[in-house]
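Quick entry between incubations.
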Amino acid sequence: MKKVNFAEFGGPDVLRLIDAEEPHAGPGRIRVAVRAAGVNPVDWRIREGQVLGAHPTELPAGVGLDAAGVVDEVGEGVDGIEIGDHVFGEGSSTYAEFAVLSAWARMPEGLPFEEAAGYPSVVETALRVIREVGVLPGQTLLVSGASGGVGSAVLQIARDRGIAVIGTGSASNQEYLRGLGALTTTYGEGWTERVRQLGRVDAALDLAGSGVIRELVDLTGDPQKVVSIADLGAPESGVRFSGVAGSVPEALAEAARLIARGKLHIPVEKSYTLAEAAAAHIDSQAGHTRGRRVMVV
Ligand SMILES: NC(=O)c1ccc[n+]([C@@H]2O[C@H](COP(=O)([O-])OP(=O)(O)OC[C@H]3O[C@@H](n4cnc5c(N)ncnc54)[C@H](OP(=O)(O)O)[C@@H]3O)[C@@H](O)[C@H]2O)c1
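Done. Structure below.
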């Protein structure tokens, strides 16, 4: 089968499309014929060798954690899923024609594979940070870095729970963010004043890692009302850094429910073939993805 691989840590040029042995579903796992794989920033962080603590990586290694596809092997001890089912979930080496998943859920009726592949990691992260920041219905959550994958999920899940949202994004994403139900403003010079003019902030999330932790603490008045997923220095200001994934199966089930109710839709900004993996990483690393990027197999 075809698979995207890298034999050394480094820039996008270390990625190769190779012929590889097909993986097989061990106990508690399933294998899918991959139709699409989500492109997440963690994919290129792993490729660069930046996150070996959280993602121990033996070389040569495949790329990709999220996928949507058709089940074609069911491992020992797995119930409730059949060969031929359409699923989305998390596993390893998903930029490939076949991949093994460790967590999955059936895709909602009518959801395209391409869109489905964008949900697993971002919805798990969004549900986790909303829980950890402790924001309640009727309160207002400020989201710094609202237009990417995680931000798009946070905004929609929060709105569905009756939480008001203020999102920051680039000028070109203001309309997109308003479409997700947020009050919005641009980041950059004077942004905290613009946020203050939009209203009181009860809790805040740093999703962009753009060095705004102190400002988020000022806006909420309490470091415990701020959570970051992208700034490892956040704890120096008493702010929690959230980096340990919660339950992926629960997140997938919740994603499926929200999508089926029409409450969650993350657009695919651009799709790439496996041969274009390096371009997908270069675009993701540029840091301005609206919604999600995906590999289509
Ligand atoms: N710790 C964890 O568990 C965890 C889990 C998932 C992701 N992450 C990390 O969290 C970050 C976000 O992930 P993602 O998947 O949402 O990334 P993404 O889809 O690539 O989105 C990044 C977003 O950041 C925005 N942005 C760039 N510069 C900004 C600035 N100065 N101020 C505010 N927003 C800015 C961009 O919006 P504009 O185009 O509008 O500028 C873009 O939409 C990544 O660094 C990722 O590695 C961590």
